[in-house]
Amino acid sequence: MSEIRNDWTKEEIIEIYNKPLLELVYEAATVHRKYHNPREVQISTLLSIKTGGCPEDCAYCPQAARYHTDIETNDLMTVSQVKAQALRAKATGSSRVCMGAAWRNVEDGPEFEQVLDMVRTINTLDMEVCCTLGMLTENQAQRLAEAGLYAYNHNLDSSEEYYKEIISSRGFDDRLQTLKNVRKTNVTVCSGGIIGMGESIEDRAGMLIALASLSPQPESVPINALVAVEGTPLEEQEVIPIWDMIRMVATTRIVLPSTTVRLSAGRTEMSKEGQAFCFLAGAGSIFAGDKLLTTPNPDVNEDMELFNILGLTPMKPYAKGAKPTPVNPDEMTPSDVEKAKWSRPGHRIEKNVEATKKANKKRKEAL
Ligand code: SF4
To answer: Spans of biased composition, class Basic residues (predicted)?
Structure first.
């Protein structure tokens, strides 16, 4: 029976991943039943509080300003807009709101103060609050914790080796540093990745090693299937076979037994039966709502129908951890004036450079 280990080897993980599928799912389902209630699935709503115009060059992302995609860009939402959306999410069964902003890193100032207000507001609604805002200093993590943040998401995306093939504007170590900064607070850690970007099984295993070697392991690991968006460098990537997704969910379940595995982007391409297999293999959470930041997601009624068929129920908020008590804003840790030094490797990634050139040409033609 699987136990929590931080010393997995690549060979061990690949061996698990490549097991005969039904044996793999059976083993993962057994681990899932030991550590989790298999009847409950946590529902999160992902809210894009600031969309597009991001300076980074993540090859999978339609929000990167340098690529030519059709997304609607938006400045930072107001606190009341966020509250209204959170209430709507709560009414349809979500226990968590995850707010995403297309930033490289958090900058101290009025926008960050506004996000802290959003965190305080959602906390009063008795919903778990999560943020995904880019790289974060220790001071910023502390201030988010004091505002009542429950979780911080910062994905490793892929293995350290393959990370260099998809992003040049920041390093893998920066990602790990942000996770370390979050870990110094009582905010829980959410970190996972994407499959279907052209990576190998070794890369998938490498990402799981990086996540499993964190001590303690992340409380939450989202597994995304790439949604190839026209205009991004990965626009021609084929949809990942459902069997790969099931294998990845099951392997994650076994390697990180007490973690909540999130079946995240790419569900619109998955059949109901495929998703059911993922729940059996240990997925314990989904994102609800018709959009996941900028890409399509199944309708919430369809999800509820599937839950009814499978006998699953939505998990209540704070089922796996206490509700954070926000600190009085006047007593919060002051903002740190020292700026963090995040890296910018800037190596050439051919497909990213080509997509940028194509976008610039389209912009010129449109003028
Ligand atoms: S994934 Fe995040 S950091 Fe990367 S381009 Fe998109 S919004 Fe920016």
So the answer is: 358-367
